[in-house]
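Lecture 7 notes: from sequence to structure.

We start with a single chain of 146 residues. Read the sequence below before looking at the structure.
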Amino acid sequence: MLALAMLSVLALPLWHKVDGLTHQELTLTAFGFTAKGLQLPGTIGPVWVIGLLAAASAAVAFYEIFQFRSRGKQLLLGSINLLLITGTLGAFFYFSNKGEQLLNLKLQGQFLAGFYLPTLALLLNLLANRFIRRDEQLVRSADRLR
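Now the structure, written as tokens:
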């Protein structure tokens, strides 16, 4: 589920802002801004970092699933994934703030469905790490009984 949530970030729009008076629109996706009726400056920055972090997080999650024989490695990969998801959320906030400055400062932009998926992925990652840790404790307690 975590990997699917992060892959969905790549396909869904993350943030959108519309100016009703000038009919200008600005949408943030994982790979860049799309503008309608607005000329974008070249100083926005590398928005593709959002897509890179989301794709890396999905890849780590897929790899983590198949490391079931080494729970220590799974916990390490879960920690790495925590950092990647947090970086994705940080990049969202940074670039949505940049987008707010590009179009009518008095209007607020809206976070769309793609924005909330990393929060779900973060929760799923924390739950996975918790249950991996619990499984490791169960195996250690069974080894003590032998």
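The CA atoms of residues 97 and 109 lie 9 Å apart. Keep this in mind for problem set 3.
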